[in-house]
Amino acid sequence: SKESGKNTYYIYSPSMNIQTYKTFNLEMGLRHALELNQFEFYYQPKVCAHTFQIIGAEALIRWNHPDWGLVSPGDFIPLAEETGLITEIERWVKFTACAQNKAWQRAGLPAIPISINLSAIRFMENNLADNIIKALEETKLDPKYLDVEITETSVLENEKAVISTLDKLKNIGVRVSLDDFGTGYSSLSYLKRFKGRIDTLKIDRSFIKDLNREDADNSNFITKTIIELAQHLQMKVVAEGVETQEQLQILQSYNCEMIQGYYFSKPVPADKFAQLLQKGKFE
Ligand code: C2E
Ligand code: CA
Ligand code: CA
Ligand code: CA
């Protein structure tokens, strides 16, 4: 039959709409992307707010498609999550980030932690920690040089399971950062329970974007409060999406420790990042 329901089309249906076709194409491509070696990391430095030294990096996935060019994660991670392909992709993510970091250390570059992003949906899976252990063993990377970024929303959902996963990660010795902080309706009491389990808070770009001397919409106040809260809980803070000198200066005055954003560098390919790391700091 051509149609099984009102809005259900099969792939050979002549009435298939463009969007369905695109999604289908995307999914087919995604299934082969790993074996065709089409994924690539771009690395963005995390910079000390005071010395401008590079003290970390975030590995951000790109899909290097032969026809479409560089596809950004926002355009394929959701589909990867829906189809379950994310599990395979994240195996690649864990292994590649560890292997690259180890290779840079072996080449004599400064040793820094590199962060990977893990999907909220899969975060509580049992084999998450196992896969991380495997990647660390295979690459011989010291666990303290791997940082796992998880989003605030993934942590809010099932606290008990999340805490047990976080404790496993702590046991292994990898670091954990809470990404997009401030967007997930978290309360102070909830954050308290993650004390000692989360090493770093990343203040979401939506607050940083609105930082300015006039502080018309309280973004300054909120940012300052998040920084003080993190310090109180002995967590480090990264400001994400810093683009201007004015934002940087405001963050320095609040004693924010780490800066990530276009002001210093966009995410860059591995060879370019190695050059930045070799220099060690920004002017
Ligand atoms: P995110 O983890 O919040 O990453 C930060 C995003 O902001 C990156 O976009 C980065 O390029 C961008 N960005 C950094 N500095 C600035 C700035 O100063 N201004 C502006 N306007 N943007 C800035 P990107 O690389 O497109 O990644 C988007 C999202 O995709 C990430 O958000 C993350 O949630 C997800 N993602 C990336 N890599 C992976 C991965 O390996 N696995 C999973 N599950 N998700 C990933
Ligand atoms: Ca992130
Ligand atoms: Ca983020
Ligand atoms: Ca964000």
From TrEMBL:
Instruction: Name all EAL domain ranges.
Output: 23-281
**Protein name as annotated:** Diguanylate cyclase
Q: Whole protein: which stretch is covered? A: 417 to 699 of 828
